[in-house]
Amino acid sequence: MSEDKDPLWDPEFKGDSEFKGDAEFKGDPEFKGDPETQRLQLLLAPYSVKARGIADWMPKKAPAKSSVVKFAKIMAAGLAASLLLFVGHLYRLAWDEGQPWQVSSLSISETTLTSLVAPGGLLETNQQQSLSIDVARIGHMTLSPNSKLRLLETRANRHRVNLESGHLRATIWAPPGYFGVTTGTAELIDLGCDFELWKNTDGNGRVHVRSGWVAYKIGAYEVLVPAGYEMKFNAQRPFTPLRPDTNLDFAKAVRAFEQVAQPEVSAIALSLAADRVAGAAQDADAFTLLSLLTQYPQLAASALYPRLGIALKIPSIDLQHRNAWAAGNLNAMNSWWDRYPTQPKNWWANWADAFR
Amino acid sequence: MYKQDQLLPEPSDSSISVFDVVRLLREARRGSQSAFAQLYRRYSPLVHSILLGRFRPALADELTQECFATAFARLNQLKEDHKFGPWIATMARRIQASETTREIGMDALPEVQCATASPEEKAEAEQILRTIASLPDAYRETLLLRLVEGLSGAEIASLTGLTPESVRVNLHRGMEKLRDALQTNRFASMENRNV
Questions:
Q1: Quick one: B71 and B129 in the same domain?
Q2: What values do phi and psi take at A297, rounded to 5?
Q3: Which residues, 6 or more positions from A203, have their beta carbon under 8 angstroms from its beta carbon?
Q4: Per-residue pLDDT of chain B (195 residues; tens, 9 = 90+)
Q5: B89 and B155 together in one domain
Q6: Domain A97-239 belongs to what architecture?
Q7: What's the burial of A80, exposed, middle or buried (CB within 10 Å: 0-12/13-18/19+)?
Q8: B132 to chain A, minimum CA–CA distance in Å?
Q9: DSSP states of A188-252 as a string?
């Protein structure tokens, strides 16, 4: 059946107007029209959308929101939240020069007294007392019993205290350098972290970093200490950072190395001491090895270099790199520093410190 | 003899191309009610036919608009814009009556306002509708589009997304089944009269 001769297919094809009956239609393939179809159509036409008066209609409900609109709203909400956080962060960092810090005293009798400390002011605790100190708006500090702390200066991007003796714990969440503690000859610079500092009146002490990093500066010399490490110091110099739970042989080997590492010592003696350190090291001691090799680049020729390579999961030893390190090439050193899992520049990643 | 001067239903707005449908959908998603109204104008015969095969005419009218209102609210769920017809047809087929009485019944046929239809013609139309409603889905929907909405085979293919060959087969087989069913009904009523 061709399309142009099919009245069932094409309603416009009327054919004969006279109804000839089913039998005649079925028996004649050349039949030019189908009155039966027309009859059915006429009978059923009153039920069509047009006849029922519903051919035109406008949706009354609220239009569906397009994904573009939703995306824009989410973006706007995200932007607003980011802006709010940014403004909040700026507010945290803002601080008028000389504006006192709030101090709460907690004695053994559990009575709390609130006071203020201004630059130049000394905070001193007895054996039954500790102090809770707000470091402007960037963090918090606890001063343990039998401690002395002086507020040296405070302003928007620089807050400095001096721990004369005793113990403190500081939890700071701010860009590197905003907060620092002097220990007399040296300065401990916060790089966005949580750390504890002990210091005796003779200048000996130690720093333990719980999260983030600190930099210990004495003159032009600087030692970085990452989370999970502890560094001892005296009035003249800092010692190599160690893990508090490192094995005793490794700790002894490092201390022995520090004893040997004097200007007049021979390269062979230094290298032998370094080999003993490498022999006792574990992978978790990577930062101690990194510190030693940075301080004594010539030791790249010793067993320290390949041991650090293993600890940092360096695939293979590159002789050119090793020679460059031994020559004191900073790029060579930085390429391995960058392999250390956490980096001091990522201070903002320790955001949880802001809530401790 | 049947009245040839009675008004046949005008074909629906089938001049809209697939590209127009896609464009209208995009505008409707952005909230354009007039764009969706144009989509309604084109696809309402399809939805109405599907519903008329299942529900009383007055209810089919109401559900047609409900179906489009739902579709308007869910336009973002349509993944392939050129398949709007099959999509809204599926939606119409899935509509469940909230009450069992809403389903079409042999005793629950419509009050249709038609100035030119005689009571006999109205009764016959109701009988034909019942008979069509008893046919399988594919024949039922195609026949209703053809006989109630007055669409051509090509328009039916365009709206439903079926191939023209499938539509042609459905029309002819459906018509045969309708004829047989109507014939059977005619004999049955004659026998009842004789008894």
A1: no
A2: -55, -30
A3: A183, A184, A185, A234, A235, A236
A4: 334 334 444 444 556 777 888 999 988 888 888 888 899 999 999 999 999 999 888 889 889 988 998 898 888 889 888 889 999 999 999 988 664 444 554 344 445 555 566 778 888 888 899 999 999 988 999 999 999 998 988 889 888 888 989 999 999 999 999 999 988 877 777 776 665
A5: no
A6: Sandwich (2.60)
A7: exposed
A8: 11
A9: EEESS-EEEEEE-TTS-EEEEEEESEEEEEETTEEEEEETT-EEEE-SS-B---B-TTS-HHHHH
- Whether the CB of B169 is below 8 Å from some CB of chain A: the reply is no
Both tokens of residue A54? 């519903």
Task: Tell me how far apart the alpha carbons of residues A270 and A272 are, in angstroms, rounded to a whole number.
Answer: 5
Query: Measured between alpha carbons, how far is residue A83 from residues A78, A139, A311 in Å?
Result: 8, 21, 41
Q: Give the Cα separation of A88 and A137 in Å (integer).
A: 11
Domain count for chain B: 2
Best CA proximity match to A16, nearest among A28, B127, B43: A28
Least confident window among A111-125, A238-252, A337-351, B124-138: A337-351
The amino acid occupying position A278 is: A
Q: How far apart are CA B76 and CA A70, in angstroms?
A: 11
> B73 and chain A: CB distance < 8 Å anywhere?
yes
Residues in chain B: 195
Q: Which of A10, A35, A61 sits opposite B73 (nearest CB)?
A: A61
Task: Tell me the helix, strand and coil percentages in chain B, rounded to 5.
Answer: 70, 0, 30
Domain that holds residue B31: 12-104
CATH of the domain at B149: 1.10.10.10
B125 to A59: CB separation less than 8 angstroms, yes or no: no
Task: Note whether B85 and B32 are same-domain residues.
Answer: yes
> What pLDDT, on the 0 to 100 scale, is given for residue B141?
93
Q: Which residue has the tokens 């309604």?
A: B40
Domain end: B75, B104, B133, which one?
A: B104
Structure tokens at B62: 């109401």
B189 and B139 in one domain? yes
Q: How many whole angstroms separate alpha carbon B64 and alpha carbon B164?
A: 25
- The answer to whether residue B147 sits within a structural domain is yes
Whether B31 and A63 lie within 8 Å, measured CB to CB: yes
Q: For residue B2, is it within any domain?
A: no
Residue B167, exposed/middle/buried by CB under 10 A (0-12, 13-18, 19+)?
buried
- The contacts of residue A110 (CB under 8 Å, 6+ apart) are none
- The CATH number linked to B50 is 1.10.1740.10
Contact B69 A47 (CB under 8 A): no
Task: Determine the residue type at A238.
Answer: P
Parallel, antiparallel or unpaired: strands A129-135 and A179-182: unpaired
B25 and B59 belong to one structural domain: yes
